[in-house]
Amino acid sequence: MSQYDIWPGFYDFSGYNAIFVRTGDDPMPADMKRYFERYEKRTLVVREGDQVLRKYSIFLCYGFKGMEERMPVKF
Predict the structure, then answer these.
(1) By C-alpha distance, which of 16, 13, 23, 17 is closest to 58?
(2) Which DSSP string corresponds to 18-54?
(3) Is the distance from CB of 71 to CB of 9 less than 8 angstroms?
(4) d(Cα 46, Cα 69) in Å, to the nearest integer?
(5) Region for residue 15 given its phi and psi (left: phi exceeds 0; alpha: psi -120 to 50; beta: otherwise)
(6) Which residue stretches of the chain have pLDDT < 70?
(7) Residue 37 CA to chain centroid, in angstroms?
(8) Which residues contact 9 (CB under 8 A, 6 or more apart)?
C-alpha cells in the first residue's frame, strides 16, 4: 500500500482552482491547458546575491473542467 491508495483522485474536482508548478521558465504544457477555463503564469526566480539559483513557473489555474481517469503508465 502507498499514499496513492489512500488519497482520492483529482478527477472529481470540477470547478475547483489549482496551482501547477514546473521547474524552469517554461510554458503551460499544451495537454494541460484544456483542463482549465483559464490560467495565469507567474515566474519565481530564486537568487543568491546576483546569481540566479533556480526558476519556477507557477500557474494559477481556474475552473478545472475535470478529466478522464487514466491508469498509470508506470509506477
Answers:
(1) 23
(2) EEEEEESS-PPPHHHHTTEEEEEEEEEEEEETTEEEE
(3) no
(4) 35
(5) left
(6) 1-5, 8, 70-75
(7) 14
(8) 69
Residue 74 amino acid letter: K
Q: How is the chain split into domains, by residue range?
A: 15-64
pLDDT for the residue 66: 87
Helix (H) or strand (E) holding 55: strand 51-64
Give me the pLDDT at residue 56, please.
98
| Residue 72 pLDDT | 67
Question: Given this model, what pLDDT does residue 38 score?
Answer: 97
The residue count of the chain comes to 75
